[in-house]
Design brief:
Number of helices: 11
Number of domains: 2
Radius of gyration: 20 Å
Largest sheet: 8 strands, mixed
CATH architecture of the largest domain: 3-Layer(aba) Sandwich
CATH class of the largest domain: Alpha Beta
Length: 290
């Protein structure tokens, strides 16, 4: 990454501005390439500032994404992408924070963090790159593996019912819920822009097929369809009806509902405390406990 002088903005105008010198090492045809391309395009459209944008990633194939950009990045450990991203945003609310992680990382070991990120409504964007398989560890079933799928490691399929990320995010009252597909890059880019612009916790379920262990391109190509333009994004019941439609996998914005965002609430709390007790120093705070 080029040296950034303190106090200067380095805005993304072209792919060269945001693409790092590190070449992606995903398998040919991996849907993660589509997600990365959409992140690049969204950064250009939004004129994002390299100095004030952070991508936090979880474990697995998707965890490599930050290094392929010039944004500041943090590659965390199993299942901890959301608490890490939350900490980054709360420490510096001025930052644009994007969290990326896989379906296993986000719904298995990290599944307990999802509802709490939703209820806190911290202003960050969570992109779940869902390939419905543990690709990095050679093809075991993940929480989103459809019972209809047969994997190299599971020739007779999985026995458990799969989780639906859209259903979970709606149940958790995530304030922006959308689904994208790596086969439709332009639409994915548009959803990333909308998610980043949303003030609060935004979730984009990004279908990202694994060509090595769970190639679902044909499966989704026959089923994906755009959410009807008449859909009311403020109507959660209508959103729930969409995800339950048999034989169809809807793409687009399911639900959007503005509500208080945590960093703003923290700022108001700080102001209220200072108005009541006065603005003190760390030394005074310590002395009060002596």
């Amino acid at each position: 990454m080029a040296e950034i002088k303190t106090g200067t903005n380095v805005n993304v105008k072209t792919i060269a501005d945001v693409k790092s010198a590190v070449a992606p090492i995903w398998c040919p045809g991996c849907g993660d390439f589509g997600v990365l391309s959409a992140v690049y395009r969204a950064a250009i459209i939004m004129d994002l500032d390299l100095k004030n944008t952070v991508i936090v990633s979880g474990i697995g194939c998707s965890g490599r994404l930050p290094i392929f950009t010039k944004f500041y990045g943090y590659h965390g450990v199993h299942g901890r992408v959301l608490p890490t991203a939350t900490g980054v945003k709360l420490a510096n609310p001025k930052l644009t924070v994007i969290a990326v992680g896989g379906d296993g990382d986000g719904l298995a070991i990290g599944g307990g963090h999802f509802p709490h990120a939703a209820r806190r409504n911290v202003d960050l964007t969570y992109i779940m790159m869902d390939n419905s398989v543990y690709g990095l560890t050679k093809g075991q079933g993940s929480p989103t593996t459809n019972p209809e799928f047969t994997l190299k490691a599971l020739p007779y399929g999985v026995q458990e019912e799969n989780l639906n990320p859209i259903a979970l995010s709606l149940a958790y009252d995530v304030s922006f819920v959308a689904r994208a597909y790596s086969g439709h890059i332009d639409a994915m880019t548009d959803l990333f822009v909308k998610a980043i612009q949303h003030k609060g916790f935004s979730f984009v379920h990004s279908i990202s097929p694994c060509t090595a262990f769970n190639d679902t391109y044909n499966y989704y190509r026959e089923r994906v369809v755009n959410i009807p333009e008449a859909h009311d994004v403020t109507n959660k019941k209508a959103a729930l009806d969409l995800w339950q439609t048999p034989g169809k996998v809807y793409l687009g914005t399911f639900f959007k509902s503005p509500r208080p965002e945590m960093t703003e609430m923290n700022a108001k709390l700080s102001q209220a405390v200072q108005a009541k007790s006065g603005k003190g120093t760390t030394e005074k705070l310590f002395e009060s406990f002596v």
